[in-house]
Specification:
Number of domains of chain A: 2
Oligomer: homodimer
Strand content of chain A: 25-35%
CATH superfamily of the largest domain in chain A: Medium-chain alcohol dehydrogenases, catalytic domain
Shape of chain A: globular
Number of helices of chain A: 9
Largest sheet of chain A: 7 strands, mixed
CATH architecture of the largest domain in chain A: Alpha-Beta Complex
């Protein structure tokens, strides 16, 4: 017997070598099976699109096993429980978690990250500034960046979902913030909406001179989402005891062959600086601490965000590639429906 | 008026671009002036020779200002106070500090690192395993490497003055130790004297395979004194939450042009690993903690060391270049005399 629900889902059709393109996915339709004891059925309202998903489909060594061919694309999603045979969840609960690019997800609860309790704020935020992006910004900056008032904090991908939050949190903690973004529109956002003290455009010919001027006192914290030539300009400008947080490598389009760059060891040694990789999964047990802080900042109008909402699941297959084309402004989401009860 | 003492001193004659060679120094003779109030006169017994001294004479950005042309070569030395007009020092005190490559040093006390109180142990040790080398090993491993029992700790320059101590301390703290050294003699020392669980020769053709076999469970702590191709093999093998301590870059002979290598960011990200530069000067206030621990390890025969003693100040000018030629085994020193009262 199957339930009355029909599920459209985006599965991985073939394995990309680099950035996953639309042709690496296909959309299937399937009926939703009846729930077994201990399971819940979630109707997704919003699907997340984020740069890290590129790594989730690549075969290369990564921090998690890759999505299998034919499997539903792994992703965060937010939605509502429409049926439950699980003691911890009731019909009507609003949840977010690793529910995948699909209309309906069945889980025994392990895919659920949390119940969304900030019902005064838009549900979509639970995938962005109140989701993995904001939580990443909070812990990466607080625990790895360890900013002190007066520090210069440099953020690459400063107009992005994570970077924009990093900049605003750092500013709130008394730091001077320098954003790096691509294009005049994003640079203006950094200055006017996300409150960076300075913002520079890495696509401009005078980027190096502009960045050097914006970081005249050196760099105490570098929140790095790009690697590549942006980092190659930032790293030599670090101050004594600087902290470099590696959160992503967006500028590297391919890891085969492995890219080379100027060696960092001497910079780290001369400045007794730290370069540290960050994965938000390591802070799972403290997730609510971050969400509570971020939600309060939003309510007090001290944390701005931008969203770019694509309509319908057909937008999903090309959505990651679009991120890497730099076409989005703000957190990219796919809206399936708005019918949260 | 001048004192009856004649001082031979090694001064920097010209600035080297890379590794300082004998021709970059010259030896001068000068009379020793009378002491002013607040000064002491130290007769040096041992002069230190260490890889970091290369950086002290290079104009390139470094962690300290370079030695000026015509100035006495900066170095650690150990000796005895032969005259004092300083309330904290008495004739006969044995001291070590930044006394320079010379027979006699005059200081107002600021050049003195410490009084040497381990008179039951050879004075030369205060420049090696009980000096900056041992103290470096202790704090770099303890505070940056943060080893846990059962960790695999990889040490480059494992037969050297610092690396050999790192390996033995790590072993004493319950770790499995893998040493990397150049040549059969040093590899044998690593195995037989410094107690490494495995030691591999980076000069052998099968280095990569041998190292991979020796680090089959991955690398939890990498104490790096080399950078370059050794690091390029080690870094991809790090485990989750690995700590890479950058203590030196001995394999890089020149920083102009700045050398390139495989990018480290993705490795650090995938493993949420840390790469941190270490300078022992940052631990000055805790120097005695390290010396006390190391001295006790030596007395209990749990910390072995090797010294290579060059005789007389004429050996100094070529001594740094010789380090980089890899010709020494153990801590390199220059003995001026043995007449400690």
């Amino acid at each position: 017997m199957s339930s009355p629900f029909v599920n459209r889902r985006v599965v991985l059709a073939s394995r990309p070598a680099g950035i996953p393109q639309a042709e690496h996915f296909k959309i299937e339709t399937a009926s939703v099976p009846e729930l077994e004891a201990g399971q819940i059925l979630v109707r997704n309202a919003y699907l997340s699109v984020e740069p890290a998903m590129r790594g989730w489909v690549n075969a290369a060594a990564n921090y998690s096993d890759p999505v299998g061919i034919g499997e539903v694309m792994r992703s965060f999603a937010a939605g509502q429980v429409v049926a439950s045979r699980h003691p911890d969840y009731a019909e009507g609960d609003v949840v977010m978690g690793m529910l995948g690019w699909q209309d309906y997800a069945i889980t025994d609860g392990r895919a659920i990250r949390r119940k969304v309790r900030e019902r005064d704020l838009p549900l979509s935020l639970s995938l962005g500034v109140l989701g993995i992006n904001g939580v990443t910004a909070y812990f990466a900056l607080k625990e790895c960046g360890r900013p002190h008032a007066g520090d210069t904090v440099v953020v690459s991908t400063a107009a992005g979902a994570v970077g924009s939050a990093v900049g605003q949190l750092a500013k709130g903690w008394g730091c001077r913030t320098v954003g790096i973004a691509g294009g005049a529109e994003k640079v203006a956002l950094c200055r006017n909406v996300f409150g960076f003290d300075a913002a520079v455009d890495y696509k401009e010919a005078d980027f190096e001179a502009a960045f050097n001027a914006a970081s005249a006192d050196g760099v105490d914290v570098y929140f790095d989402n790009t690697s590549g030539r942006i980092s190659d300009l930032v790293v030599p400008r670090i101050n004594k005891n600087a902290r470099i947080v590696i959160c992503g490598t967006a500028s590297v389009s391919n890891w085969q062959p492995w890219p080379t760059g100027p060696r960092v060891e001497r910079h780290l040694l001369n400045k007794t600086a730290t370069m540290q990789g960050f994965l938000v999964w390591d802070y799972e047990s403290r997730y609510e601490e971050a969400v509570a802080y971020l939600a309060q900042q939003i309510r007090e109008h001290r944390l701005n965000y931008r969203e770019e909402v694509l309509e319908g699941i057909d937008a999903a297959p090309d959505a990651i590639a679009g991120l890497y084309r730099g076409e989005n402004i703000g957190k990219r989401l796919i809206r399936l429906h708005d019918d949260i009860v």
